Amino acid sequence: MTTQSWDYVIVGGGSAGCVLASRLTEDRDTRVLLLEAGPEDRSIWLRMPAGMSRVVWGTQYSWAFTSEPEPHLNGRRLGHPRGKVLGGSSSINGMVWLRGNPRDYDGWAQRGATGWSYEDVLPYFRRAETAPDTSDPLRGDDGPIRVTRPSLDATPLARAFVDAGGEAGYPILPDFNGAEQEGFGPIERSTYGGKRFSASRAYLKPARARENLTVVTGALAQNIILEQGRARGIRYVAKNKTVEVRAEREVILAAGAIGSPHLLHLSGIGPASVLENAGIPVRHELSGVGENLNDHPDLVIQHKCLEPVSIYPVTRPGRSWLAGAEWALRGTGPAATNHFEAGGFVKSRPDVEHPDLQFTFMPLSVIPGTVDIRQEHSFQVHIDLMRPKSRGHVRARSADARQAPEILFNYLADPADRADLRNSLSILREVLAQPALSRFAGPELFPGSKVRTDAEIDSWITDTLETCYHPVGTCKMGNADAVDVVVDPECRVRGVDGLRVVDASIMPEIVSANTNATAIMIAEKAADIIRGRGNCAPTW
Asked: Which of 88, 114, 315, 329 has the fewest other C-beta atoms within 10 Å?
């Protein structure tokens, strides 16, 4: 077998992997190999924002994971798509561009992730983006990710929702990524010119012409090649052939909060009991690998819309074709947006330090438990619990990389999560009852006016709670004193030389917003660490 070598071998061509491949190859003498299990991101549906529903489900561009029976959700199994394509989940996600709250990152630093406070990470958020308002010193003005801020005046339902938040006593904010987060306002998205701006488009595509970057798609990593306590390379399968590649400097895992811990397990790195149960020889015992799985649980409230201003007619044959044609010709119209134009961040309880509930408004509704759009004018609001206390795990089932790992999110294991979600329903109902929405908001279709008591609300939560598709935390970052820590603040795996993890799995705790912008920030900062550049200096 002929073995080729690079300076860095990156496993995972998703959000973090694309950033790393781009930044590391800016150094012309640094050779990088990027391995991605999925295909190239060439489909038109990956570029069209409204095409999300066509690519997020199925297996062409997604791993299409399914959870174990969730013990606190009546044993329901929840589907969990993750990107299996260049760009990873940034190529199939909802394109929401949010950073979270500054206190999230200060909490990371206080809990052992030294160097990851808000002051430390802000320059990397700025470096990653070109924001709608580049005059704000907190926002980026020339980064790879182009960001769009929707006009609420173009969507009467979204405008009414934001105004209702103001009437309920909350601030109306122009920018959730600015100095304040609590309030209602427009939700920015990673699109530009009516097209998705994935990490592949923003970072990888401009770098593909560099001679020191090699990208291999359709490459399923089998395990890390370990020699005398050091990661020396990766063994992968492509086109039914097993290939071994060597890393002269480091192996970097960027396979996400499910893929990275799974590959560590497949390589014999993790809790001994998990590895033994899977029939994998223990090469390096590390108890935290695959543990600490965290996610944002999601609920939905739906109302009938009294005026014909929802977008449901555009989803029907005929109108949808016209929308697609307008997008193809001009990059405008209903196909050029993700339809998550408005939202809000609020506190579930007065004693919460910063907002722990996120509301996301949609000018249509989907029949609960399905992907089918209600064939009537209606709207829905998603409720997401931002800092749930419940934790789950990712664990290899066997030594076969083709077999999906065991994934248990363990939603609502902590009773506090259920209590906070119970409060969220009454908070949102109060907003939806404000005068600004009175001309639009008809009867509550879901959960319905009969769901009122704590017992009824708890039953509804158990029966209908879903996921916001934000898995994090399974290769937790922190200091060496904590037994559950997998990587140090420089993203190096404890006890294994030449091996780092750089993706959402290293988040010590989940952030108070959608997670893709944070995953990209993590890779931007890690790239500087790997290149020996220290921390990016503030530029404001």
From this structure: 329
